[in-house]
Design goal:
By secondary structure, the protein is mainly β. It is 10% helix and 50% strand. Strand 17 and strand 18 form a beta hairpin.
């Protein structure tokens, strides 16, 4: 009987390990001769994911766009030599399913298509179309209006956010104008790289690159900008583990995290939630204000830590030491 139990356990371990290995499949992307891109139709369900590998050279411009039937379906992009579990150069759950950027290294870039855990645990299905293109020439800076040029033509290299009312934030939008989608927020004193400005009706709108570890690009109203200095490279970095539970009814476990800390309780925290995915949480002045797009964030203060709940299911305990150091 004991021998039979041992044999059954071995079979279960083998089946479980085999099933987990099948949750992520890898595909190599090749473009047809004479073309610079391709379109891929795919489908994932639950915890399944697909890792697409595509070769590119430094100086080229890669564009990736995904249309999907499921709002919890995203993609991350990893630089050559990095894989899921490493820091991603682009995170779809916080930046959207549209990427375009100049590549800094030569090699195989990995594009991970996955489902957020909130949908994966419900075994939801996502049908997606992934468009990948790589321009054969180095990207060129877009033309700027001469009166609001970028740093190469006399304007400042960096802006600083200013003139916001107390406790207010500056909306970063997907395009120039108040009708464009809000994709981020900045506070007084936040630095931003100047990518050029232009007049829209009677207002000056400036394209900026903001963020520290996790950069994003968008447009802001120029009346809230003044010339500033480059952001300091001395943001404190830390890593470790925090108590977490990502499935309803699941006991608390230790989840690895990495954090980038700035002054005054401003911090960005990424928590490894498994299957190559991370949960993103942003703190301003010591308070959690934002998590991955489309997810609800609530919290309560308990002694020297925050108890965070995301979508009413996931639970994280973030001590002050993660935010402030110590």
């Amino acid at each position: 009987m004991n021998a039979l139990k041992s044999l059954l356990c071995l079979v279960l371990v083998f089946m479980t390990g085999n099933a987990l290995s099948q949750e992520m499949r890898t595909e190599t992307v090749r473009f047809a001769t004479g073309t610079t891109g391709t379109t891929i139709d795919g489908q994932i369900k639950g915890y399944e994911s697909v890792l697409y590998s595509v070769g590119a050279s430094a100086g080229q411009t890669m564009s990736v766009r995904m249309d999907t039937s499921n709002g919890a379906n995203y993609f991350n992009i990893f630089e050559p030599g990095k894989q899921p579990g490493d820091a991603a150069m682009f995170i779809g759950s916080t930046s959207g399913n549209d990427f375009s950027g100049n590549l800094a290294a030569t090699g195989d870039y990995s594009i991970l298509v996955y489902m957020m855990r909130s949908a994966a645990r419900r075994d939801e299905v996502a049908r997606y179309t992934l468009e990948i293109s790589i321009d054969g020439s180095a990207s060129r800076a877009p033309n700027r209006d001469p009166d609001y040029a970028d740093g190469l033509s006399g304007g400042p290299d960096f802006w600083e956010v200013t003139n916001l009312p107390a406790n207010d934030t500056l909306n970063v939008r997907a395009g120039p104008g108040t009708g464009a989608e809000v994709i981020g927020e900045l506070q007084n004193g936040d630095p931003a790289r100047n990518l050029g400005c232009r007049m829209v009706d009677s207002a000056r709108w400036c394209q900026i690159e903001a963020g520290f570890e996790q950069k994003f690009t968008g447009w802001v109203n120029g009346r809230y900008l003044r010339e500033g200095a480059a952001p300091g490279a001395a943001n404190a970095q830390s890593s470790g583990a925090v108590p977490c539970s990502t499935i309803s009814g699941q006991p608390t476990r230790q989840c690895p995290f990495r954090a980038s800390r700035g002054p005054n309780g401003n911090a960005t925290v990424w928590i490894d939630i498994g299957s190559g995915a991370e949960r993103y949480i942003e703190f301003r002045e010591g308070n959690p204000i934002y998590t991955d797009q489309g997810l609800d964030l609530t919290y309560e203060r308990m002694g020297d830590l925050y108890l965070l709940r995301i979508d009413g299911v996931e639970r994280y305990e973030i001590p002050d030491a993660v935010i402030y150091g110590g």
